[in-house]
Design goal:
This protein has about 450 residues and is of the alpha/beta class. It contains 12 helices and 16 strands.
Length: about 450
């Protein structure tokens, strides 16, 4: 119990933390050619530091009150049945798959079942399928959207197909008209990997709300950060929320919060499995699970970051538009992102694919040499990755577009920490590479869109 003196001292400490932020975390001036232009990074204010120190002074090191608040806010954001905080986006993906393979649910996924997924992406969209004994069915991607080609999904479905697990790559929403229609017609589970896409919409509906389950990452590169962290959006009620929380919390049957006992009122009156009647409910395990929880320190940061989602997403969109207009004059040499009128992306990055007249390696080295960070589209064609070449999988047809993305595509940053000066420098650096004169960034070229 805090004394009045302790409360006053804490308030004084937190006020000094706010002052410290102003002194220690200001942005240095940007020097073209010398300063880095990061592809991503954390953006935070004094509120994040204050929350972090506040939580540390309480010394509640496991998930606690800040975690409860953060989960509640995210449930409200998505209008979800539940939101389960995890220690990374990768474990959120693992938790999603483990939840759908749990014998607690009515019709679980079983080893040997097939799951439709995209050949291009981050490996931990697929790794949980492999670990669960499921069979990934790799579908080619599309240059321009970098998502699964929706026109190739239905033909890949067999009587073994049980689920679709897709990612909204770089924050670009997949064609959810087609994907949700297929999932409904074939009675398939749908998992959305939204790790890149928090705040994006398709037909004005938030990505992450279409599937049975959806996942998020709060790594510093993403729309908001907890440092490390992730989360599972549970869009269906029934047993799914309880099962997901059980698996995240070691697989236990007990639902008591940390530090609480006997929420059910009959802690020593259960009889489950082959255990003797009265076995301590806190140590009864109804699922095979792990500890996927983050700390309350991380959730404290999240409670400040969540207030910034709207502003962060809007800045990403503005930065994207400036880059799009500035690079439009080079659309004969660069394939710019395809714009879908139905979607409003929460851009993770700005992808470009070079044409045959341009060397990706030369362009990337030109940008990197100028201090502009670039990244490949994650694992490229995962079928070619060493770890995935010998897994049990099915590839219904060749994946030439995934190979092209792996060979010819990269992305640069749009994150909120980029200033107008930085983006102007990026565009100037592209112009130098293409031998074009320096010009303003207000070019209003016609954008390529799909309806």
């Amino acid at each position: 119990m805090e004394t009045d003196k302790a409360k006053r001292l804490k308030a004084e400490i937190l006020e000094k933390v706010r002052a410290y932020y102003g002194l220690a975390h200001g942005s240095p001036p940007f020097v073209p050619g010398r300063s880095k232009v990061p592809y991503a990074g954390r953006v935070f204010g004094p509120e994040e530091l204050v929350n972090l120190v506040d939580s540390s002074l309480d010394f509640w090191l496991t998930l606690g009150s800040y975690g409860d608040q953060f989960e509640k806010r995210m449930r409200g954001f998505f209008g979800a049945s539940d939101f389960v905080l995890t220690n990374s986006g990768s474990t959120a993906n693992l938790l999603a798959v483990m939840t759908l393979t749990s014998p607690q649910i009515k019709d679980p996924l079983r080893p040997g079942d097939e799951v439709i997924t995209c050949a291009v992406g981050f490996p931990t969209t697929v790794a949980p399928l492999v670990h669960g004994g499921l069979v990934p069915v790799f579908i080619d991607a599309e240059v321009g959207t970098y998502n699964i080609n929706p026109g190739l999904i239905e033909e890949a479905i067999t009587d073994k197909t049980r689920a679709i697990m897709i990612a909204h790559t770089l924050g670009i929403p997949c064609d959810m008209d087609v994907i949700t229609g297929i999932a409904k017609r074939h009675n398939l589970y749908l998992i959305e990997d939204c790790c890149d896409a928090l705040g994006g919409t398709f037909r004005e509906q938030k990505v992450g709300t279409f599937g049975n389950l959806a996942t998020l990452s709060f790594y510093p590169a993403h729309q908001i950060t907890l440092g490390e962290g992730g989360g599972l959006v549970v869009n269906r009620g029934g047993i799914l929320p309880k099962t997901a929380r059980s698996i995240r919390d070691w697989g236990r049957d007990c639902w008591c919060p940390t530090g609480v006992s006997n929420t059910c009122g009959k802690r020593f009156d259960w009889e489950l499995g082959g255990l003797p009647k009265g076995y301590d409910h806190k140590y009864i395990y109804s699922n095979i699970g792990y500890n996927f929880k983050p700390t309350d320190l991380q959730a404290a940061i999240g409670m400040a970051q969540i207030e910034r989602i709207g502003d962060f997403v809007e800045k990403r969109r503005r930065n994207f538009e400036t880059l799009y207009q500035g690079l439009a004059p080079f659309s004969d040499r660069l394939i710019l992102p395809v714009r879908d009128k139905r979607a409003n992306p929460s851009w993770f990055g700005f992808p470009v694919t070079v044409t045959n007249s341009v060397s990706k390696n030369d362009l990337v080295q030109h940008l990197e040499g100028a201090g502009i960070e670039t990244r490949s589209i994650f694992g490229g064609n995962l079928i070619r990755q060493p770890a995935y070449q010998k897994i049990r999988a099915r590839v219904p047809r060749e994946t030439p577009e995934a190979d092209r993305i792996m060979r010819d595509t990269f992305f640069i940053g749009v994150y909120p920490g980029l200033t107008e000066e930085m983006i102007a420098y990026v565009l100037e650096t592209f112009r130098r590479f293409f031998g074009a004169p320096q010009r303003g960034t207000g070019c209003q070229e016609k954008q390529k869109v799909i309806s």
